[in-house]
Amino acid sequence: MKAEYSMLSLLIPGPQSPGNNIDVYLQPLIEELKVLWDLGVETCDASVKQTFQMRASLLWTISDFPGYAMLSGWSTKGKLACPGCNYNTNSTYLKHSRKMCYMGHRAFLPMDHKYRSNARDFNGRTENRPPPELLKGEDIFDLLEGFNNAFGKTKDYEKARLDLQDMGIRKKLHPKELDQGKKIVFAKACFSMTTKEKTTFCYVLKKAKIPDGCASNISKCVQLAERKVSGYKSHDAHFMLHYLLQVAVRSAMSNQVAHPLIRLCSFFRCLCQKVIEVADLDILQTEIVETLCRLETIFPPSFFDIMVHLPIHLVNEVRLGGPVQFRWMYFTERYLGKLKSYVRNKSRPEVQSIAYYGSITEIVEVDYYGMLKFVLFRCDWFEVEEDKFGLTCVYFNKRCYMDDPFVLASQVHQCFYIQDPSNPNRHYVMKSIPREFFNLNEQSTSNGQQPYQCDPSDHPINLAVSDETREVEFDRNDIPPTIIVNSLRGSDEKESDDDSSFDETHLD
After folding, report:
1. Which residues lie closer than 8 Å to 155 by C-beta, 6 or more apart?
2. How far apart are CA 417 and CA 415, in angstroms?
3. Rounded distance, CA 28 to CA 120, Å?
4. Separation of CA 194 from chain center
5. Can you give the pTM of this predicted structure?
6. What's the pLDDT score for residue 453?
7. At a CB cut-off of 8 Å and minimum separation 6, what does 146 contact?
8. In the 8-state DSSP scheme, what is residue 26?
9. pLDDT confidence of 133, banded at 50, 70, 90?
10. How far apart are CA 225 and CA 204, in angstroms?
11. Do residues 109 and 289 touch, judged by C-beta distance below 8 A?
């Protein structure tokens, strides 16, 4: 997907989205698509200087999740918010938080998986249901035949703890009354962060030096003094998920919380490769199901809105539509950024190899009297190790291979380093692939030289094995609990459980 092959038309409806009135904009498009499919359009073939009847069809559409609801007519909020699970969406209404949550990911595991019988760490019940069946095209056609389609914050808060009490799970996190019920005390959850840990988390994002063209200047979005990250764009969030969060959560959170989050980051990084093996898709599907199940044992039900549930269907979309680069919205957003003349940040390029990781100190061009030219990189190489989470790190204060500093430019790939806040000399290696680069698994390069390394991110999964037998610690004893005034004392909240209340659920 490139700008020269795109025709971008913009709809600017005003301060509000079109909603059901989007059919006014779609009607001319649908009429033209019918003509292109049924009759075709006479088109000139410049290569043979002849005309032919060209027919076209709509393969897929690209939209964000609210736009998906307007375009398809399927509501993306409420009880049945998941288009993939459809009428079998596993949703629960949280009475105190007044919102829907989407958990029950154990249903996607094999029937003999140990998580299915683990009631303590999940919702207090065993899971015996099979996964919901995905609708086929014929099923959707039968459902819609004859149908007149008129288009026409933090997750851990007081009411989230009351929902846990109402569900009868994670008793250590239940609110406790003080001063004869005048105040309520909440123990800190295992994913709560101290001021120092928040500073460490922000420090990793602030000090990361990112190669040109990979993302915008993320460091400008980080306020260390206030310990906040704000003002970043959707592609910046995508980049942070792939490369930065793995180091940030490893440095700032406990192992039981960091491990599933690192697995989630690795899943998205593997899923978004430009070249992906079909055999790896089954591995990725198993990985995301187990990861979501691990997250269910850590975070409260209010965390699991529909956006957390949707990754469980992404592998199947790759099976149907191929690599995600041809179906996501970043191309359109980059094109808009080009039109608005955004300026990207610059940083120093660095290189990596299968045996060496280092940084470029000098670039040399060797010219054999105009007959032959080679470009050499003079590099400083550093010692390498792998930590318990499977992340590769180098030590800038420990140089190695000092008698072999040169390497051909064709034998390296670009990477960048993220500093470990606990050790200034240790940096984590992040391998990024340039947007215009596609590895088609050629066996050799054009000049016959074999590259030193395989393509970045060529392994579908690179994760340490966690200790699954250890019970989850739901609370933290090293952080003082939160004490608030009991605002619910002496009052009974009236909750509506009718269908209209579900349709009005707002997602944070």
Report:
1. 299, 300, 302, 303, 508
2. 7
3. 55
4. 25
5. 0.55
6. 32
7. none
8. H
9. confident
10. 14
11. yes
